[in-house]
Amino acid sequence: MADNNQYHGKVIVITGASSGFGKGTALELARRGASVVLAARSVDTLNELARECETAGGQALALATDVSDRDAVENLARQSISRFGHFDV
């Protein structure tokens, strides 16, 4: 059985976070105490998910990101570091 505290204090970037596997992963990691950086193209959906993650116990940052755009991905990294100081995954 996995240690539920292994994610506490970790900062994890999740692309494709607005639905499906990405959304489920974000919520589960937030429940386990991780800070999640939520990336997808739909900012409204991401903002709602960020609220859900924070209600679940984690911290969240929602960033509209097109991962096929290098500048957008670099912005994702910069914003993650600006907010949380680093990212682990």
Compact summary:
This protein has 89 residues and is an alpha/beta fold.
Q: Averaging pLDDT over every residue, what do you get?
A: 94
Q: Flag low-confidence runs.
A: none
| Strand segment tally | 3
CATH 4th-level superfamily: NAD(P)-binding Rossmann-like Domain
Please trace the helix and strand order, writing H or E for each element: EHEHEH
Using the alpha-carbon principal axes, give the shape: globular
What profile does the largest beta sheet have? 3 strands, parallel
Q: What helical percentage do the residues reach?
A: 40-55%
Radius of gyration: 12 Å
**Which percent range describes the beta-strand content?**
15-25%
Could you say how many structural domains there are in total? 1
Query: Number of helical runs?
Result: 3
Secondary-structure content class = alpha/beta
Question: Strand arrangement, largest sheet?
Answer: 1-2-3
Give the CATH level 1 class. Alpha Beta
CATH level-two architecture: 3-Layer(aba) Sandwich
Task: Please describe what this structure looks like.
By secondary structure, the protein is an alpha/beta fold. The protein contains 3 helices and 3 strands. It has helices spanning 20-31, 43-56, 70-84; strands at residues 11-15, 35-40, 59-64. The chain has a 3-stranded parallel sheet with strand order 1-2-3, with helices on both faces.
Essential attributes:
89 residues, alpha/beta, 3-stranded parallel sheet, 3 helices
Break the fold down into its secondary structure elements and pairings.
Blueprint: E1 11-15, H1 20-31, E2 35-40, H2 43-56, E3 59-64, H3 70-84
Helix pairs in contact: 1-2
